[in-house]
């Protein structure tokens, strides 16, 4: 048994569209999880024309197919940059260092899978050499904003007994703050090396990238007595693909095109509360 999920921006989901898709998929009774925003219906098997239908409604809503059994997860594993926050921290540091445009281009290409993540990170961090460490606090205070729905997502996961881990290819100087703001149980990231109050232009080794995120998933679930099938993972970049594919529910959130193409679950219209709708929670926040 599967669940066909439809999620749009608040007020953007038309009942006629939902009914039309239900008929096209041969689905059961429609359940509205949030009025004019999120709806779902059961289907016995994957609709034969699902990919075509998804493409046809892509401008109006996110159409996803979720296994009905075990859809509520016991652990959240989240990327940070452009996922739990709306920025890429290294890009914001680069703006302060006067090399913003160059670094943003490298970041975009790396997140789209065009460049090796580790090499691209080393190259970008080198451009930050000499930047005062104190700039990090200023960036956090003036440039970093939380992705909408993050606190609601973590609050519900915790209320249901879930564990929440933030695992980022970014930096501990940021993940520690973001984790504290949102209530993550733990966080992992790379370390910006500092000497005499200035960034050295180097990053601590080993570098946390795609494989390290998969390893974090394996290590944390083993410690908690969980299986990867019980994990909800969310991210937006190519370095997230490993954990998204390994988790029981891997969601590409406002992701790069090449990342979306490799993920079964995609959210482009909703915010982080869409991850609650995908698990079948009704809006009560």
Automatic annotation (TrEMBL):
The active site is at 79 (nucleophile), 81 (proton donor). GO terms for biological process: L-serine biosynthetic process. One of its GO terms (cellular component) is cytoplasm. InterPro entries: HAD-like_SerB (IPR050582), HAD-like_sf (IPR036412), HAD_sf (IPR023214), PSP (IPR004469). Gene3D superfamilies: HAD superfamily/HAD-like. Belongs to the HAD-like hydrolase superfamily. SerB family. This is Phosphoserine phosphatase. It comes from Ponticoccus litoralis.
């Amino acid at each position: 048994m599967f669940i066909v999920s439809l999620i749009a921006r608040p007020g953007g989901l038309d009942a006629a569209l939902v009914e039309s898709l239900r008929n096209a998929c041969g689905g059961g009774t429609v359940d509205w999880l949030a009025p004019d925003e999120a709806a779902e219906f059961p289907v016995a098997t994957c609709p034969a024309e699902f990919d075509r239908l998804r493409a046809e409604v892509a401008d109006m809503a996110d159409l996803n197919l979720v296994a009905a059994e075990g859809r509520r997860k016991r652990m959240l594993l989240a990327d940070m940059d452009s996922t739990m926050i709306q920025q890429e921290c290294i890009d914001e540091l680069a703006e302060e260092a006067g090399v913003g445009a160059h670094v943003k281009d490298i970041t975009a290409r790396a997140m789209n899978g065009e460049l090796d993540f580790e090499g691209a990170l080393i190259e970008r961090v080198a451009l930050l050499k000499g930047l005062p460490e104190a700039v990090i606090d200023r960036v956090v205070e003036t440039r970093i904003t939380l992705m909408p729905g993050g606190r609601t997502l973590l609050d519900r996961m915790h209320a249901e007994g879930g564990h929440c881990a933030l695992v980022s290819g970014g930096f501990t100087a940021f993940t520690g703050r973001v984790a504290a703001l949102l209530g993550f149980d733990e966080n992992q990231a790379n370390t910006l090396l500092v000497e005499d109050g200035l960034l050295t232009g180097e990053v601590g080794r080993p570098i946390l990238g795609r494989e390290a995120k998969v390893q974090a998933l394996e290590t944390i679930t083993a410690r908690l007595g969980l299986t990867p099938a019980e994990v909800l993972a969310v991210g937006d970049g190519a370095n997230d693909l490993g954990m998204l594919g390994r988790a029981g529910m891997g969601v590409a959130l406002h992701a790069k095109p090449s990342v979306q193409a490799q993920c079964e679950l995609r959210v482009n219209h909703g915010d982080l509360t869409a991850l609650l709708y995908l698990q079948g929670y009704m809006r009560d926040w």
